[in-house]
Amino acid sequence: MRDEPTTEAQDFPAVTAQRLEAIPELDDAVATCRACPRLVAWREETARTKRAAFRDWDYWARPVPGFGPPDARLAIVGLAPAAHGGNRTGRAFTGDPSGDALYAALHDLGLASQPTSARRGDGLELYGVRITMPVHCAPPDNRPTTAERDTCRPWLTRELELLRPSLRAIVVLGGFGWQSLLPVMADGGWRVPRPRPAFGHGSEAIIPSPEGDGDVHLIGCYHPSQRNMFTRTLTPAMLREVLGRGAEVAGLQIG
Q: Which superfamily does CATH assign the domain made up of 12-250 to?
């Protein structure tokens, strides 16, 4: 009998992810991953050195799992955790300007219980929405390598497979997330069109499901990065509009 893979093993995500039968199990397994040495070193070094404003924090310093209900109808796919955001708090889009913009927009639409997110366990709930990402560790300069993205891919592939019975729409934040998501959907059996849909703010594409039991509506959105929000490449109104469109096609009530 083959031994169970260790979290340091090169095949840990690929072997382990497909064995998991529920979203909570997947989230627990993601948080143990040590498959990418550069990312492990960076996230742990960031936790040791910290930022002056957060010197009293005990950083999460592990891979950040997805957040939201296991029967979500709408998924939001970002890039990766921020070094002093998700890597500090343990929750995606929490503790940085991107998260401030995202959760405020979700709350305005009635899809989040509160407009801010400070840390895991702060009482925030999402309604019908799950937030995830193609890379679960904070990368140096916010730039994961292609190899790191591909190593992490099985987590997102399995997450979307487990969400498939309910999932009807995905809002993708940024071009990296869009380019990373399409191969993941193809791996999961979705019939991704050829040529592959191009990313753009407000761009939309229908991705037929493997069994024809519920297609997924893909919607592009500029990433709510501090730079994009400061330059008004993306405004709060633009973000609400795209998220509202995602909720609409997913069949979620907003208000």
A: Uracil-DNA glycosylase-like domain (3.40.470.10)
